[in-house]
Amino acid sequence: MAAALLLRRDSLPESPEQAVADLFDAAGRGDDAGYLRVLGGDLSASVRQTRSQLGTEAFRENLRRSAAGIKGIAVSRVATLESDAVALDVEIVFTGRNERQRVLCEPTGRGWAITEMAAAEMEKPAIAYGTPVFDEGAAQEVPKRSPRRNKVCGR
Question: How far apart are alpha carbons 27 and 23 in whole angstroms?
């Protein structure tokens, strides 16, 4: 059982989309090891340096704060590049804003790692997430009709 847990901890996600999902899941939990596990290349080195500068607890709190309020995440493949790397567009939905960013994932011998993340671009949607699109009270009201007599054949 312990060997299976260690193997899972060292393995990487089986798809680029799963790498992104794992990244945000780890951020929400403040799991710095899980967050760093899915990063590769220069991005991994840069984030590890940030963790070292901030200290582990402050870094974990920053991860939790960055993921607080996420209502949903949409991931779309943009392209597969010559190096077998995959570019993804990631849209993160919050109540009052959406954030979009491009993410680059590369295959490794153990799965997929996120190697580049562009700065997130913020957009305020016309209607905030969770806003009812119609008046719920009006939708439940049944219009009153004038009483009619049903005619029965032969009477």
Answer: 6
